[in-house]
Specification:
Radius of gyration: 22 Å
Structural class: alpha/beta
Helix content: 40-55%
Oligomer: single chain
Number of strands: 10
Largest sheet: 7 strands, mixed
Bound molecules: S-adenosylmethionine
Number of helices: 15
Order of helices and strands: HHHEHHEEHHHHHEHEHEEHEHHEE
CATH superfamily of the largest domain: Vaccinia Virus protein VP39
Shape: globular
Length: about 325
């Protein structure tokens, strides 16, 4: 009984640490601190904030293990130096700012559930940049894991289409690991601007091509690919559009080609795993798609002339459904 009460109370106050971390990221506090040890007054001045509220925020960040405090001076921990100081390779600050955007949308959940009406997404250049950079922040390690998980299918493939390939992080990782691959990243113009920089910086301009295309509107995504990859793409769309995109992916393959759909698969009841059940709500408030079950996506594949052959998990929350075009 006591355990249940604690669990419920913990869940209800989960917003407090999240809010403290997101505020610190919005203020770019970890970058302001860098490798220094500073007092609350000095940090407040650097971040253009009031000293007293800043002192409380800093103490709470210390309590949460995100800063350390010696006397009256605060400094970054090893983890925050590595992940929340701008400019470091493992930087996660952009995805934190994307979560700040989500916070605003999630605050409308009660109204959405009551009325069934979801306010339209506010599209601004700043929000889009945070989203794309956030995907790039998260993508690298996931791309390495995916490249390993798909090694038996990627080895020997020559033409790969990455639909909704965003910042081209997966494309670059795949291209590096499988030298015979030529990759086309298909996405909307905004993410491709970012992708262009990634591909250039990686020196892969000759092998990773960028194709600006609205996959929903386009009649075809291409032809004769021997691998089509979709990562965290179909969950952005409602079921009829998602199934149509799987059909177009199937049409882009040559016979014997591979379709790999990586996503947050959910059980048919819609209740497990926990992450997918929560992400389904995230897609609701985003006025976008949903998490789909493996059996549903397998059926879409079959309708597209692609026979599901294998499923593998990757990372903590994702799975990849792999099919072969008949
Ligand atoms: C969640 S991101 C996934 C990015 C990348 N595949 C990954 O796993 O990190 C979804 C991507 O789909 C792209 N996208 C959304 N609608 C699209 C459309 N109609 N046509 C092409 N790309 C689209 C977005 O721009 C975004 O880059």
């Amino acid at each position: 009984m006591d355990k249940d009460r604690k669990r419920i109370e913990k869940m209800a106050s989960g917003f407090m640490p999240a809010r403290i971390l997101l505020t610190a990221c919005e203020l770019d506090l970890f970058t302001c601190l860098g490798s220094e040890s500073l007092s609350a007054g000095q940090i407040a001045e650097r971040c253009s904030c009031s000293p007293e509220p800043m002192r409380r925020l800093l103490n709470a960040l210390t309590a949460l293990g995100l800063l350390s405090k010696q006397g009256e001076k605060y400094s970054n921990t090893r983890a925050t130096k590595r992940m929340l100081v701008r400019g470091r390779p493992g930087y996660l600050g952009d995805i934190m700012l994307h979560r700040q955007n989500l916070w605003e949308r999630w605050s409308k959940l009660t109204r959405i559930v009551k009325t069934g009406e979801v306010p339209p997404k506010k599209r601004t250049a700043g929000r889009e940049r945070r989203f794309i950079q956030g995907m790039a922040n998260l993508g690298y390690y996931s791309a390495l894991q995916t490249a390993r998980a798909l090694s038996s299918e990627l080895r020997g493939a020559e033409r790969l289409l990455d639909v909704g390939g965003g910042p081209a992080v997966y494309a670059c990782v795949f291209a590096r690991k499988y030298p015979e691959l030529r990759i086309t990243v298909l996405d909307l113009p905004g993410p491709l601007r970012y992708a262009r920089r990634t591909v250039r910086a990686e020196g892969l301009t000759g092998r990773v091509r960028l194709k600006s295309c609205d996959a929903v509107k386009a009649r075809t995504l291409g032809r004769n690919y021997d691998f089509v990859f979709m990562s965290n793409f179909i969950h952005s769309f409602k079921a009829p559009v998602a199934s149509m995109l799987v059909r177009k992916a199937g049409e882009a393959l040559k016979p014997g080609g591979i379709l790999a759909i990586k996503d947050f698969y959910i059980n048919p009841a819609g209740t497990r795993p926990v992450f997918a059940a929560l992400f389904s709500v995230n897609m609701l408030v985003a006025n976008a798609g949903d998490c789909y079950s493996r059996s549903r996506v397998s059926e879409w594949m079959r309708q597209a002339g692609v026979r599901p052959v294998r499923y593998t998990t990757v990372g903590e929350h994702s799975g990849i459904l792999i099919g072969r075009k008949t």
